[in-house]
Amino acid sequence: MRRVVWLAVLGAIAVAGVLSGAGDPFAASNLQAKLIQQVAGGGVTVTATLSKEQGEATAIKIAFNTHSVDLNGYQFEKIVALRDESGRTYPLQAVENASGSGHHRQAVLRFGQVTPQARTIELIVKDVAGVKERIFRWSVAE
User: Fold this and answer.
1) How far apart, in whole angstroms, are the C-alpha atoms of residue 52 and residue 140?
2) For 8, 65, 80, 88, which has the most beta carbons within 10 A of its beta carbon?
3) Distance of alpha carbon 50 from alpha carbon 57, whole angstroms
4) Alpha-carbon distance 34 to 103, whole Å?
5) Which residues have CB under 8 Å from 15's CB, separation 6+?
6) Beta-carbon count within 10 A of 55 CB
7) C-alpha to C-alpha distance for 87 and 77, rounded to whole angstroms
8) Cα angle at 90 between 115 and 125, to 5 degrees?
9) Selecting from 1.10.150, 3.40.50, 2.60.40, 1.10.10, what CATH number does the domain 26-139 have?
10) Burial class (CB in 10 A: 0-12, 13-18, 19+), 8
11) b/e per residue, 9-40, with b = 16+ CB within 10 A?
């Protein structure tokens, strides 16, 4: 009987972990709330979420949302850049899981690994809906 109760408790913990987004580097939490930023302008809201798990690449989830602008013409590869406070830029290595069309688009951007000396990084999104630059800044210092 104890074993059944123990297995039920472990199962409930596992389900709670899955439902809460455990294992998802972009899942919402108190820490993650600091990593999510939004900049609106020109009728388009851009949301950028820095992944809390940075391995060999710096991962940022980006989402474009609007009710009035056709977003299909924007190519993530051509409109984003990543730099640190010293001005060093990091190459975009991949655009993953791109989805959506029309008024809602999103993808995960993978940039080169940020140097350990960097204290802050900035994602720059250029020329979307008449807004020259949208800048998202995060502290990466430990």
Assistant:
1) 10
2) 80
3) 11
4) 26
5) none
6) 10
7) 19
8) 130
9) 2.60.40
10) exposed
11) eeeeeeeeeeeeeeeebbeeeeebeebebebe
pLDDT in tens, the chain (142 residues): 433 334 333 343 333 443 444 455 445 444 455 789 999 999 999 999 998 776 778 999 999 999 998 899 899 999 999 999 999 999 999 999 988 888 999 999 999 989 989 999 999 999 999 999 999 999 987 6
For 88, which DSSP code? -
